[in-house]
Structure formats: C-alpha cells, structure tokens
Specification:
Chains A, B: Keywords: DNA-binding, Glycerol metabolism, Transcription, Transcription regulation. The structure is a homodimer of 252-residue chains. By secondary structure, the first copy, chain A, is of the alpha+beta class. Chain A binds a DNA duplex (30 and 30 nucleotides) through helix 3.
Amino acid sequence: MPGTIQSIERAAQALHLLGAVPEPLPLGELARLLDLPKTTVHGIVRTLCEVGFVVQDPATGHYSLGSGLADLGRAVDPHLLRARVSHWADGLAARTGLAVEVAMLRGPTAELVAHVFRPDGSPQRLRVGELVPAHATALGHVLLAWAPVASRVRELALTAYTPTTPSTHVALGRALQLARRQGWAALDGGLTLGTAGVAAPIHHQVGTAVGAIGVVGPSDQVLQPSGAPHPGLVEQLLAAAHATASTLRDRL
Amino acid sequence: MPGTIQSIERAAQALHLLGAVPEPLPLGELARLLDLPKTTVHGIVRTLCEVGFVVQDPATGHYSLGSGLADLGRAVDPHLLRARVSHWADGLAARTGLAVEVAMLRGPTAELVAHVFRPDGSPQRLRVGELVPAHATALGHVLLAWAPVASRVRELALTAYTPTTPSTHVALGRALQLARRQGWAALDGGLTLGTAGVAAPIHHQVGTAVGAIGVVGPSDQVLQPSGAPHPGLVEQLLAAAHATASTLRDRL
DNA sequence: AACCATCGTTCGACGATGTCGAACGGAACG
DNA sequence: CGTTCCGTTCGACATCGTCGAACGATGGTT
C-alpha cells in the first residue's frame, strides 16, 4: 500500500485540533499538540488561511476554523446568485440596450434565475424560472462548457429548433470547445430564428461555472454581419461575470 | 511574502470541486478540472480519504465529500460520549467493584456526563450533571493535562478542600506533568478525605482528550498503601478509554 | 471469444518543494 | 530597560510530492 501525502495529513490534523476547541488556538499551542516545530505548523496554517479553511484573529494572532470549510458542501443558491448578479445585470442592460439573462444548469436545460428587460420600453415577458434547452442557447453552451461533468453532453437529446441549432453531438462538442477556448459563447438563432445571444461563465470554484450571464436580442443588434459579437459586448459580459463571481466569494 | 504549501492548496481545490457538484466525481474528471495528472490527483484524494474528508464509492470508484469535514466544527456531544462509554463503564464497575465516572472539561470544572454505581448494592446518589472542581479530582487532572489550551491552568482558583488538594499552581503543574508522563492520573483525598480516584483520558483528536473515565471509591480500595493504584486498575481504565475512543471514531 | 478503451491504482526515478533551525521585529510583562 | 514569548521570515538541505509508465479490472464493441 503506497503512502499518503504527509503535508495533507498534517493539515487535516491541524483542522481537527482547531475544530476540537471553541476558542482560537495560538500557533505555539498548535505546534505543541501536533508535536511539530512552529515554523512547520506556520506553513500549514498559512496555507489553510489562504484557502479559507482557517482564519487568524488579527488582534491576538490566534487561529480558528474558517467558513470556507462550511461552504464546501453547499452549492450556490439561485436566489443568492440572483441577488449578487442583479446590480451588474441592470448595468449591462442599460449599457448594451439588450435584454440580460442569467441561468444555472439543471440537467439538460438552463434555468433562468434572473432576467432584465431590454430598456427600450417595448413589451416583454418575465422569464425567470423558465427552462430552456441548454444545447440551443448561448447561456446553455457556457454552462455545458464549464460543467463539472462534461461527459453529460453525450446524453443530451439535441432537438433542432432551427437550422442553426447544434443538433449533433459533434457540432455541439465543437461549439463547447470553442467556448472554452475563447472564454465565452455566441449563438445565432439556436432557439428562435433572428434572435442571437452571447454569454459568459460566472465562476465560483476553480474550473467550473456556477452560472452564466448573457445578452439576448435581435441578431443584428447582438452580432455583426461577420457573426462576431458587437465590439465591446464580450468585454462587458466578462466584466459583469467577474464582478458577480467576486461578490459570491464574499462572506455574508 | 513566502509561499504556501502547494499540496495543501491542491487538496483544498479538490475539496472545492467535490463540493461544487452533488454527484460523485470520477478521478479522471477531477484530474481534468484540476489540470493535473491522474496519479497526482490520486495521491491527493487517497490522502483525503484516509483523513475522512473524502469518501470513495466502492461500486463506481467515484469520489465525494466525506463526513469528516462536517465533523470538524463539532465538539463531541456529551450525550454521544455517554452513549459510547456506557458499555465499557458498566464492565469496568463490575470488574473493579468501584464506582465509575466519566467527565468532560467545562471551564475550571469537570462535568460528570456518566456515572455507574459501585455494584455492592450500597445506597448511592446519581451524580450525572454535577460539576466538580477539576484541580481536586483525578478526572479533572486528566482533563486539564490533555486540554487544548494548557495555559488555562494559571487561571484556576485552587481551593484547598483537604490537606491533599493541590492548592498551588506549582503543585497542580507537577501533578499534570506526572499525568501526561504516565498517561493517567491518581488523586487521594483531593475533594473528600478517605476517597481516592484514578482516571484516564478518552482521546478523539491527536493530542487532546474529549473526556476522562475514572474509578472512585474508598482510598484503600483504589490505592495500595504505597499510593500506587491497585494492580490491573490502570490497565482496565486505559482499555475502557481506548475502546470508547474507538467507538467515537466510528461514523453513525 | 477477442479486442479495445478507459478506469483506478501501483511503482519508482527524480528534483521541486516541504521541513525546520536560526533569527527577526513586535508586544507584553516585571 | 531588560526579558520573555509571540508570529513570522529566511534559506539550506534532503525528504517527500510529483507524475510518466505500466498494471489489472471492467465494460463495451465486433
């Protein structure tokens, strides 16, 4: 039986000790209990502080368990995501003149958790709560591209809503690869001819996206004749996504 | 600013990923998301499995968060300790003919969480819930000797109940050092003249004791004229303490 | 039945990183 | 003011983590 990684075991022991007492522990005490030199323990708790599993009381220098541990088992609540994203989504709609939608992956679909109307006063219908097929929307492409279990794509039923809907796994795979490469996704007429969307991932943990934010509107207002998004659109989307992700990392 | 420990950071990233999805992740998927070779990730998750932070589904081989993480923030519940210790405490009382008490540290006192009567049928009073001064009992000496924050001893008010109560910090310190060295504590007449106790720590995490188990009775039945415990008494105590600790580590 | 792909796992070479003694500045105490 | 103890930094060194190669097991395909 091969060995395990000593530094991870030691970190776990430090966490156990910090969890065993309600009050913060000084470094020397931790070192004494772990039977390790202070500098060794200091390296461990400094790393645990950086990843949020341990916090250091600035006044006393003592250490205790951090909220990062409690957060591990919790997926981001849709209401929390909506709360955090709405400010940026409002601004994005105002600046782009387009409707803004935010979605989270729900099996083969994208569930809209936030929707800001395009600001031109035209009649619109609130779509929050609606499930849209992930393969047929830019939002869905982003969610699939950054889903933890990418192999799930093989299981999707790829209904062709329009001639431009990716309706084979090869076509969808290519679109997702392109999204991963460029960091965003665009799709023209995937669900409705004449309507296009561009979306970007909202990251919470390394490598995956908790949601996606996108703009959607008439194709000629979202994309240039070349098929590329209008100048500045992608940058604004990425900025909104990044800002939302930052607020998600804030502790309440 | 000096660096942090890469392997601990990587372990934390693995835990975040496992926490981000409700279903278990295969090793290859974890490796892809972490952008690390499979063998590297395997070493990390094997270690996390060993410390209980991750579990592996035996059927599929996939990994998910373990209960060890949730356990970190929770001290052992007195009712749980009582439930786990009672079998061993009953046996100890039967074999030694002495009353058995189990306690947990509560500030400067030892709180009795379990009490088994001496089996001679004499009238006795149930003492569960009672707080006894830690410095004046063998149980309390054990709890103080293996407390996470040893420096708290300085803050104790050392009331002298009998001439043999350790009533200076020096005397108490010596008694605790002796306890740590020999792995158990004995005290004759600390609280009541003519009554002696011997106690051993119940460990849950490395280096600390979650509780203590001890026998208490007339001095001549607990200790030999030399002051040493009766033969076999310490071994039986340590066995009961160890068995209790083992059941505490079991997952319900 | 044979072949193939992919899985989790083990082995072991190698050098990158973790370990930890020495030493630091700061805070608290007598 | 001197002393003690704290958390922290530095840097030498060799231990340990990394990871390519390869394994047996499993499931799917022909």
